[in-house]
Design goal:
- With 408 residues, the chain is an all-alpha fold.
- The chain has two domains: 187 residues, Growth Hormone, Chain: A; 201 residues, Growth Hormone, Chain: A (Up-down Bundle).
- Helices cover 75% and strands 1% of the residues.
- It contains 16 helices and two strands.
- It has a two-stranded antiparallel ribbon with strand order 1-2.
- α12 packs across α16.
- The protein is globular, with a radius of gyration of 21 Å.
Length: 408
Amino acid sequence: MQAKTAHPPNTVAEDDRLPIAALLALAMTGFICIATETLPAGLLPNISDELGVTTAMAGQTVTAYALGSVLAAIPLTIATGGWRRRNVLLLTITGFLIFNSVTALSSSFWLTMTARFFAGAAAGLAWSLLAGYARKMVAVHQQGRAMAIAMVGTPIALALGVPMGTWLGNMLGWRSAFGIMSALSVLLIGWVLAVVPDYAGQPASERVGMRSVLATPGVKPVLATVIAWMLAHNILYTYIAPFVAHAGLQGRVDLILLVFGLAALIGIWIAGRTVDRHLRTAVLASLATFALVALSFIAWSDHPLAIYVGTAVWGVTFGGAATLLQTALADSAGAGADVALSMNVVAWNSAIAGAGVLGGVMLQTWGAHAFPWALLCLLGVALGIVWSARAHGFRNGPRAGGAVVVGH
């Protein structure tokens, strides 16, 4: 009987198949992260009535989650850097199990807020782990496709999470929606134990400090691009309802978000096909196309067809963003990839929070028609950063574990 040849990470045989089941377990983790974050959005009246607070206060359950991610991502990633990777992954999923269960059972608003904060902390650790974990499972030439699969849970949750949670909350009560998240976490723990390979953490001698990672050439340009791009995206995404009202679509926001989510799946597929050989081009094309969508919204914001078509194209440009940006960041950071990806969590969630504030001020001051102009400014900044970062961050040519290769 022949013995199987064991391939260490990133040196698997050229014809090895992608570990689809394991990558989908990571995607499921991402789905739970996003679904847990967005569930309250469709259930605010139910939550506020039962916990005896205003709708605005109930909305702070989303803020608490985001704050937990921002504050915990970097310190938790550094603290668990030497742990075995599967143990860290299981810790994050267990966090969702515990804190979603507390949310489902809590009768106290402040206990609910505390549980939401720590659920966000679990998400911050998860997001800093998932991309690097997917890269470890496969050879360098498969990393782009692997990350695209691992990120597929995000657009699915964005497209289906809020409407699914709202439907479940109205049918079974808002607590049941969080209870279902806990049940999914239990199933996911078994899934991870069954199919996800384990890897050693980094020895203390090989770990790179946060300042050293931030000083690595290419890291700052990628993080700056994350902030500019996600500010632009989230200004429009957060305030999509008042924006589409100009076209008489205020009652079809759910359909518009569904169009966005389905289009984002196409974007993930495109990113998986292009990230390894054309990362720089894919990022530039995504940003430029999103800018064209903003221009179309300036010209035809009162036309329903233009809103639907523009939203679909916008969804395609956004779908691959996580794969493209995290690949660029991990390649630039090298051995400090996990720490860099935890910084990405902070940048991403800070942009979400910043977009909420900036978009709210713009809405009150100038109205929703000002959003596309803000998008154009931010996307212009992002394009300028990417264009100038051709040496480090967003390099030309095929990628190979962080190095640009010429030929084969």
